[in-house]
Fold these 2 entries.
Entry 1:
Amino acid sequence: MQTYLADFIKDTPVGREADAILRSCVHCGFCNATCPTFQLLGDELDGPRGRIYLMKQMLEGHAVTTRTQLHLDRCLNCRACETTCPSGVRYHRLLEIGRAVIEQRVPRSPAARATRFLLCEALPRDWIFKPAVRVGQLLRPLLPAALADKVPSAAGRVRRPWPRPAARPRRMIALAGCVQPTLTPNTNAAMARVLDRLGIELFEVPGAGCCGALRYHLNAQEKALDDMRRVIDAWWPHVESGSVEGFVMTASGCGAHVREYGELLRHDPAYADKAARIAAMTRDASEVLAAEQQQLVELLRRQGDGSGQRVAFHSPCTLQHALKIRGVVEALLTAAGYQLSPVADSHLCCGSAGAYSIIQPVLATQLRDNKLAAMRAGSPVLLVTANTGCQTHLQSGSKVPVRHWIELIDERLGAAT
C-alpha cells in the first residue's frame, strides 16, 4: 500500500510506525472473513480492510467526520483479523494510533464524552466501582432492562478464601485488577489454591490497581500509561529483590495488555527497561499450569476420573488472538475430567471487549447472543471462559452458569472449601 502521510504525523515515532503498518497491507480482504462486525453489518467500512483505508486517508490529511469515528468505534479490537492476515499487519496498533488522532480531530457529543469520562474514572477505581455495583444490585428491579442487564446479580457464588500462608520456595504475583475483585472475586483465590497445591505461593500486591487496558482502549492513553507505571512501581521491588519468578494473569485481557508494556512504554526513559522486564515475566494462568502439567496431572489422577461434566469453553479474543494461546485451557480441562462441548465459530468475539458492551450495546448484545447459542448447542451444564469481561457479559444473557476455568480445576483438586 502506497502512503503519503501528512506533515502533522509523518516524521513522528507513531507516524513512522503507522506508515510501516499501512505499507504491510496487501488489500487481500482475508481479514473481513473473520471480523465480527463485518459479519453482522456486511459493510466494508466495518471490516479491517475498510477501516485501514479510513485511517490511511485520515493520516494523509483528508477530512474526517463522525462517520469515520463511528466505523472505528465499532471495531472490537478483537484481533481476529491479525490471526487471519497472511501479511502480518499489526492492525491493533494502527487502530490505537488512528483512534488517538481522530479523538483530537472529531469532537464527541456531550453525552458520549460524559459516558467515556465516567467509564475512565469509575471502572479503574475499586473504591468507586464496588459501591456503584452494590447500589446497582439494590436498584436492579427498578432499572431499565438495558442497564439492569449490565449489573451482575447479587446472588452470586460465595467467595472462597485464599490458602493459608505457608513458606513456599516459589512465589508469583497475581494482578487483582480493577473490576475483577468485585465481579468475579473467586478467580484469583482459585488460582492461588491450585498453585498452593503445586508448591507455589501466589499473592497480590496492594496498590497495583488497573493494568491500564480499559483507559487505553477508550483513547485516554496518557491516563492509561500512568496506570501502567503504577503497576510497575508496585511490582518492581519484588523484581529487584528476585523474590518472585513471574506474574500470573487470570484475566486474559489484562495479560494481553501487560505483555505489551515494553512496547507501549518504550519511549519513556524512566520506565522502558522496567516495562520490558515485567512484560517478559508475565504469564497467562494457562501457561503457568501448562508448565506444571506433569505434577498437576498426577494430582488430578489421585482425585479420580472426575465427573465428566459437559462444559463449553469460550476462548477470549485476548487469549487466542492477542496472546496466541490456543488449546491449552481445553487440554487442562480435559485432563481434569471435563468433557468439552464443541463451539461453532469459536474464533468470534463474544462482544464484551472491555467497555464495548456499554458503548456499543446493540452490536455487543448480538455478538453475545450468537456466542451463547453456539456454546449452548452441545447442551453443556456449564459455560467456561478465561476473562472477567467475557464471563460477566456472557452471564448477563445466560441462565446456564458462566465460570472461569480455573475454578473448575480448583474444585477437581479438592482444594475448594
Note: The chain has a mean pLDDT of 93.
Entry 2:
Amino acid sequence: MTLIAHMTDLHLRPRGLACYRVSDTNMLAERAIRSLRSLETVPDALVITGDLTDRSDPREYAVARRLLSRLDMPVYLLPGNHDGTADMRREMAGFPGLTETEDGKICYAVNIGTVRLIALDTHLPGSPCGELGQAQLAWLDGKLREDRRPTLIALHHPPALSGIQHMDAIGLTDAEALADVVSPHAHVERFLCGHLHRPIIAAFAGRIMTLAPSTGHQVALDLTEDGPAMFNFEPAAYFLHHHSDRTGVVTHMTYVEDFPGPYNFFSDEGVVWPGDET
C-alpha cells in the first residue's frame, strides 16, 4: 500500500503579508501541515503541485523551507505560474528532484512505494498560462517507456477544461500534445494537478485527472459565460492518493478544519443527542 498526500496552491507570502490583501495563506498553510502531521496513517510522501509561493520571492521560499522542514516524509515540489523555475531550484535546493532538468525545466521521476511519480514543469515565464514544451514532452515519453509500474503524473496546470472560463483561459497551452504522449501508456493511472483552487475531477487522455483544492482560498464556482474572477474561503482541503494492487489509485479529500465526531454508527453509548440533554 502507498499513500501520497497532495497539496497545491499554498501561495505563501513574506511573513506578515496577506495574499490579495485578505487571505492569510501562511496561517492556512500552517493549518494544512498540522493536519497532515496529525493523520493516523503517515503518508509516504507529500507532492505540492505548484504555486508554493505567490510571487516567487526569496522570503516566500524561506517561509516554505521552515514550514516543510517539519515533515518526516519526502516532499516533492514542482513550479506553478506564481513560482519561478530557476527561483525554486535555487531557493529550495536540497529538496528531491529539483536539480533534474530538461531544457531548463524542473522534471523528474521517482518511485514512491508501489507507484511512480513523474513531476512536470508547466511554468511559462511572463504568462499565467502553462506550457510543457517539446523537449519536456519527449523526456516524458522516454520515462513512460522505460518503466511500466503504475504512474502518477503531477503538473500545475490541468490539461482538461473545467468550465470556469476565466481559469480555462489561463490553462495548459499544449494539452493536446500531452494527450498524444500519454495515450499509448496504459500504466498512467492519474493526473495530479492544481491551479484552479477547487476540487475537480475530469477525464483527460482516457485517464482520471484529480485537481486538488488550495490549502488557502478557493476560486468561486461560477460556470456562467464570462463569469468574473472571484475567490472565497470555502473549507480548505487536500487530497490523499491511496494505491494498492487490489484497488489501484483511490483519491480521498481531507479537510483541514476539525469537525464534530467521529461518532459510532452502532452504539449511542456516551453520546448525548440534541434534545436529550435532560
Note: The CA atoms of residues 15 and 239 lie 26 Å apart.
